[in-house]
Amino acid sequence: MLLSRSGEVATFVDVSQFEPGESAFECVAFSAALCKYMGAPNGRPSGSPEDVDSAADYWYGRLTGSIAPSNTAGMSLEQLHIMLTGLSLRWRNLPIDGNSAHASDIEQVKTSLMNGRPVIICGSEAGFHDMELGDRVPYSWPPAGNHAIVASGIASDGNLLVRDMANIGPQGLRPGPRRYDVRTMFLVSGTEIIPQWSEGEESMSIDAKDPVVAAYFTVTSDDKWQCKQTGHIIQYGILHFYQSYGQNAFCGLTYLGLPVSNELPVANLPGVVKQQFERGWLVYDPAHKLDHPPGAGEIYPMHLPG
Q1: CA Rg, the chain, in Å?
Q2: Residue segments in the chain with a per-residue pLDDT below the cut of 50
Q3: Segment 229-261, tens digit of pLDDT
Q4: Which of 45, 166, 227, 280 is the most buried (most CB within 10 A)?
């Protein structure tokens, strides 16, 4: 794994989430925007602090209604994912929630970092301790509620390197990365960001162990998922295609939606089957008897009449 000179998995700008005349509750939006404009290790960030601020303001205002100082709304995990997708970032939700084990949460984050991928983590403000400040909370207000930051590397002592845009000193933002104590962290979510420069390394795929996916599907066998809402089955090749379709967000669940039929035969084409989803059809057609979209394999989105 290539690391930046700072020991981080990418290069980042230093930027504060606090701007005059704007909401002080934009931590989630700033964390996402920071990842949008990160650069490759030992390269340069792809944007400026103003780029990060502008993107954060736009999405926070769009998803919560306003960037005015009076807006004290935080962004939900679902809103974070909407923003990441809107920023054309590839991401994967980690199995971290308020009930998962602390050791497992930290291991999940570190595994992502060892694979060269930063993680947007959200957790209790009271548990974010800056070790260079005497292992204490770095905020000027009494810690309350949850806060989002970017885990950007693993320190030599096993703690996390982070980018925390609310870590403000007397002279302004303390330069990153900061070293935060993993022992005190209480995390409620983790979202892995897949950098643009690593997109060709592996195919993205969802599985039913992810809590979001598990809310919609039950695994009935190794090659079959049953939709909890519609009762229909996705299976074999169509299931594998669905798991990686779109290579972003929650793949088929995001871009095709839930199955609204089981596999159906295609008239006069033996061996060809189709399946309807909320947002389109897939067809299993290994010999391309029905259609032959450029570059398509044995499964592809079905051509629909105009």
Answers
A1: 22
A2: none
A3: 999 999 998 998 999 898 778 899 999 999 999
A4: 166
Integer CA distances (angstroms), 225 to 51, 106, 184, 231, 275, in order = 42, 29, 38, 10, 14
Whether the CB-CB separation of 89 and 10 falls below 8 Å is answered with no
- Strand blocks (E) in 135-277: 146-154, 160-163, 168-169, 172-173, 178-180, 187-194, 217-221, 224-227, 233-235, 264-265, 273-277
Q: How far apart are CA 25 and CA 17, in angstroms?
A: 8
Global pTM reads 0.71
CA distance 48 to 116: 22
Q: Which two tokens stand for residue 115?
A: 């694979």
Cα distance between residue 269 and residue 198, in whole Å:
40
**Spatial distance between the Cα atoms of 52 and 104, rounded to a whole number of angstroms:** 31
Structure tokens at 16: 């504060």
How many Cβ atoms sit within 10 Å of the Cβ of residue 268?
8
